[in-house]
Fold this sequence. Notes:
By secondary structure, the protein is mainly α. It has one domain. The chain is 85% helix and 0% strand. The chain contains three helices and no strands. Helix 2 runs antiparallel to helix 3.
Amino acid sequence: MRKYLFNGAVIGSVIGGWAVVQRTRNGPRDWKLLLTWISWGLTLAIAIGTVKEESDEKAIGK
Length: 62
């Protein structure tokens, strides 16, 4: 769990998520907001996948 919490990509994605939440609360609700949420979700998924892949490589010893 610690490997995810202290990874720079995951931290950056969470900070980006906070910006998306603020935009949702204060901005207009249109199709661009939906795309922003989708983009943030994909960014978070890629960050988590990258951490898992790096962890698996270290476990195998590549």
